[in-house]
Amino acid sequence: MMQTSFWKEISTLIRRDIKLELRQKYALNGLLLYVVSTVFVCYLSFKRLTDVPTWNALLWIILLFTAVQAATKNFSTETRGRLIYYYTLASARSVIFARIIYNSLLMLVISLAGYVIYMLLIGDLVQDKPYFMLGILLGSLGFSGILTLMASIAGRTHNVTLMAILSFPVIIPMLIVLIRFSKNAVDGIAHSVQNPYIIGLLSMNLIVLALAWVLFPFLWKD
Known about the structure:
mainly alpha; about 85% helix; globular
């Protein structure tokens, strides 16, 4: 019964976030504009890139800062009255996991759109597209989990800068693994070499979810 209630609360909160997004559309449109303008500036600067490390690193820099832009609206924009309403509507774990799932879906859509635009303007060097897509999926989940959790902490002080300060030391190890994993996918390296990176990324994502499960209820009650 508890698990059923937990997932029901999460689905209700996700539907609520999606309805608000479709009604307002400022977040999605703003992020798409940010990605398009950033990639276009890179295109004006570099035209076509043929150097794999530069191509790969530049894409992940764009996706990382897009994720930061997406996370800035988490909790910091919530009013105290709305937080109290959430407190009466659902459990703390339901609130944080619903927000992580919603932000992961949003980030995945933006990342895929960004990759397509980047591919069209800067060039496509990827040889192993399924594994590269897997990297984008795991990266979207990881960025969203870390940034959402840190945004929940920073939201208590209404200081967006604090979110970036807290997030970057935690997100750098994941970014390093993602860059190496995606570069191997670009180069078409054998899948056996990629397996340790997949395990590492999955482990990092699970650690973030475990921290959210344990820590957020204490923060929620504060």
